[in-house]
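Worked example 2:
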Amino acid sequence: MTLLSSAPGGASVRRPAPPSPPPAPPRRKQGGVILAVPALVWYLVFMVGPLVAIFVIAVLHWPGMLQPVSFAGLGNVRTVFDDPVFWESAGNTAIQLVIALPVMIVCAYMLGYYVAQQPPGHRILRYLLFIPGLISTPAKAMVFYAVLSPDGLLNGGLDKIGLGSLTDAWLASPSTALYCLILLDVWSGIGFTAVLFAARLGSVPDEIGEAAQLDGAGHWRAMWRIHFPVIRDFVGVVTMLQFLWTLFGSAQNVLLLTQGGPGSSSTTLSFLVYQKAFIAADLGYSQTVGVVLFLLGLAGLLTIRRVFRQNY
């Protein structure tokens, strides 16, 4: 559209009209927010609510669910830190993480790399590796009890081959009970983790492996120097998941196999939370240990994320 204007001398000059304002953007629909409300309510009630409750109960003296409650302040913290059982449990948890996590991640990555190379029968191998993840925790505990009990398969096998002097009450010995639980953790998680690694390695472009072969790289070098840096961030995610599972989920194995004993030689922090809450009926102590677990988990996640972040 143009406008006519008169110039000096009476001549008419065509001038372009000012541009029209852009159309107003369409109003965003609020349907997505409404649909998200149930999920947000669920998250607040069942995720944020229990997390807040941990910190609230940790400052209370609460000797049982139906008992009167009083304010304890930092008294629970002093009680926990003065308790030698807590420090032994913290040491057991540290040993469990230091042994189980590296062994599980390294072995699972190597196994997953082998499966990703699609050897003969690799599809069947994937299913076999996933089987421990399909077995319930009580069933796993029964299998390990059948193997490690005083009259179990391990001691029977040692007797058969003339090594009867090496037999032991593996789950009832202070020197071996914790390591039997660590063995169960590794056996339970290594196959499932290997399947995850194989799936991620399968998405790496074939050109990367072919270029490594042309450069003369063998499988060991290609595995650690070529493919590992490509999926480094995924390794960090899997490590964080296994760290959280080992830190918070070890209580069920301890409960089913050793009850934290002998003494407290196999008691972990997560089992100590259960023991103090449901056996000793000391909810304040229990949730104070829960706060310690939460802080340890948060610090561990941040450390793992920093270690495994991509360098490019």
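The longest strand covers residues 2-6. Residues 19 and 25 are 17 Å apart (CA to CA).
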